[in-house]
Amino acid sequence: MRKSFVNIGIVGFKGKSADLACALDQITLWAIAHPKVKFFALDSLSELVQKPIRIVKESALSRMDLLLAIGGDGTVLSAAHMALGHKIPILGVNAGRVGFLAESRVEGLEKALDDLLAGDFSTRERMMIDASVFRGKKCIAKQTVLNEVHIRAHMPDRMVNVNVAYNGTCLTEYWADSLLISTPTGSTAYNLAAGGPIIHPSTPAVVLTPVAPSSLSVRPLVLSLTDKKLEIVSAVERPLDLVFDGRSSVEVKPGDRVVLCESKSVTTFIRMRHTGFVGALREKLGWTGKPRLA
């Protein structure tokens, strides 16, 4: 057993799926059989867990050696933000619908725990974006995101009109319902639904995707952020909302600058054998190739 996996935190949210309760039952039985491994569940699961799993506040999960995120991609994103700055690896267990980030299955959870115990796994690091908002020379807000930064109008039924510069050079002016700046991890989320490209997780790049742009010539654009930055300023005298991973937001006033760069922080995922991004694409998106003749 790797010494670093003695204390395992469980992240999940009550009412998401019947699979969540099934997963917790499996963990309970496994924990009884392996008393040297301690499990600590987020207090949102207090009505679902049994001993020997212990209930803790979210702050306690920052001291874990591993986080089990049981749910959909939203649950994995929550776990990623809990792990931020603590270098805690995450194993996503799919108890949602699509779940590109939660590669392991609930029905195979006990086998996955056995493999963790045996050290039969690998790790993968996912890039993140640092998003900073400057009012004059003062940084008034900063967030690190795993999926995307979403720029949308603060007032309902208004479009977004922003100027974007790439590493100091004017790129273009976007006029659209909203604008997404997504990591490779986020490329299979809102970006995919908006018609953006899928980017392999190992690619050090981001994709700018305008949602319902006013011009057909404005297409999704893949750019490297390695030692480079994006700067975004509203082109009109209207406030904008900057939404981080769909979780929190900040109001950006006219004249504020939004600066995006590759973060030094990464999210580390546990990858079990026989799982991976390419296989997930085929399974989650139903890629079967051309129809076969009978």
Helical fraction: 10-25%
In what range is the share of β-strand residues? 35-45%
Which structural class do the helices and strands define? alpha/beta
SS field, number of helical segments: 5
Compressed to H and E, one letter per element, the order equals: EHEEEHEEHEEEEEHEEEEEEH
Q: How many beta-strand runs?
A: 17
The unreliable regions are none
Main pleated sheet: 11 strands, antiparallel
- Average pLDDT number: 90
| Computed CA radius of gyration, to the nearest angstrom | 21 Å
Shape: globular
* Intertermini distance: 50 Å
Topology overview:
Layout: E1 7-11, H1 18-33, E2 38-42, E3 54-56, E4 66-71, H2 73-83, E5 90-94, E6 104-105, H3 109-118, E7 121-135, E8 138-145, E9 148-153, E10 160-166, E11 169-182, H4 190-193, E12 206-213, E13 221-223, E14 229-234, E15 240-244, E16 248-252, E17 257-272, H5 277-285
Parallel strand pairs: 1-2, 1-4, 2-3, 4-5, 5-6
Antiparallel strand pairs: 7-8, 7-17, 9-11, 9-15, 10-11, 10-14, 11-12, 12-13, 14-17, 15-16
